[in-house]
């Protein structure tokens, strides 16, 4: 799979995050490994989330909210369709988590076949 496709995939992740969260990650990189697309995102948290993390339960709330909200985003049929059309493969599973202290999120998209160039 070409670097260009990895870049296009990263830009789609950023676009969807901006659309649903209001801002996208500051840095994003995606790598294709077999049938997996692994996206690493840095600089995800909003100023409000950073402020919330100063409270006693804030870190837990931000982590839970981010994790559950991202799962809901990727369960949207229209969102999945955009990824599937780009890759020419169907999504089987999506795993996502965020380390809020480091402000790094990882999402692993598992497709139904190895990702290959669409040339």
TrEMBL record:
Residues 3-113 form the Na+-translocating membrane potential-generating system MpsC domain. It comes from the Bacteria. It comes from Fictibacillus enclensis. This is Na+-translocating membrane potential-generating system MpsC domain-containing protein. The lineage of its organism: Bacteria, Bacillati, Bacillota, Bacilli, Bacillales.
């Amino acid at each position: 799979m070409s670097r260009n496709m990895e870049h296009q995939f990263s830009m789609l992740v950023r676009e969807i995050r901006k659309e649903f969260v209001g801002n996208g990650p500051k840095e994003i990189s995606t790598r294709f490994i077999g049938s997996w697309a692994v996206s690493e995102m840095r600089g995800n948290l909003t100023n409000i989330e950073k402020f919330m993390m100063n409270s006693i339960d804030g870190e837990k709330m931000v982590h839970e909210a981010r994790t559950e909200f991202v799962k809901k985003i990727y369960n949207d049929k229209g969102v999945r369709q955009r990824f599937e059309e780009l890759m020419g493969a169907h999504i089987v599973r999506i795993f996502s988590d965020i380390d809020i202290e480091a402000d790094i999120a990882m999402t692993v998209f598992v497709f139904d076949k190895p990702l290959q160039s669409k040339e």
